[in-house]
Automatic annotation (TrEMBL):
Pfam name, any one: Prefoldin_2
InterPro entries: PFD_beta-like, Prefoldin
CDD domains assigned: Prefoldin_1
Organism: Obba rivulosa
Protein's UniProt name: Prefoldin
Family, similarity comment: Belongs to the prefoldin subunit beta family.
Any GO MF annotation of the entry: unfolded protein binding
Keyword hit for Thylakoid: no
GO cellular component: cytoplasm; prefoldin complex
């Protein structure tokens, strides 16, 4: 096997280390976003549960800026369910992204490990 020059090997190591660091940072951000979206979704679920437990003749109001507007119950329920579905889709996409970033990080770590093991055997 042809040996690489020290300079080339150093450049490869730096590039792999940068990939690992970037993947780790992006993975942490992605996990934080998942946690925030899950909190939002849970709040929406609780709101939907509260609205459905109310009797039919109750006025419902929605905050709009600094004021509140009366909103028909079916309209508010459908809006909240749509918002919940969007959050669920966002969470699923973030989970996929996290899995990809985790794989990328693990691959970079394995490459570094392989390089150090092969260089220590020589």
């Amino acid at each position: 096997m042809a040996t690489l020059s020290d300079d080339t090997l150093r450049k490869i190591l730096v590039q792999i280390q940068q990939t690992a660091v970037q993947s780790q940072r992006a993975l942490n951000i992605s996990r934080q976003q998942i946690a925030a979206k899950e909190r939002e979704r849970r709040i929406l679920q609780l709101t939907i549960e509260e609205i459905t437990s109310l009797e039919g003749d109750v006025n419902l109001y929605k905050g709009v800026g600094k004021m509140f507007m009366m909103v028909p119950r079916p309209s508010l329920e459908s809006e909240l369910k749509t918002e919940e579905k969007e959050l669920t889709d966002d969470i699923n996409n973030l989970v996929k992204k996290s899995k990809y970033l985790e794989k990328q990080f693990n691959d970079a770590q394995n490459q570094l490990r392989d390089i150090f093991h092969s260089s220590s055997k020589q």
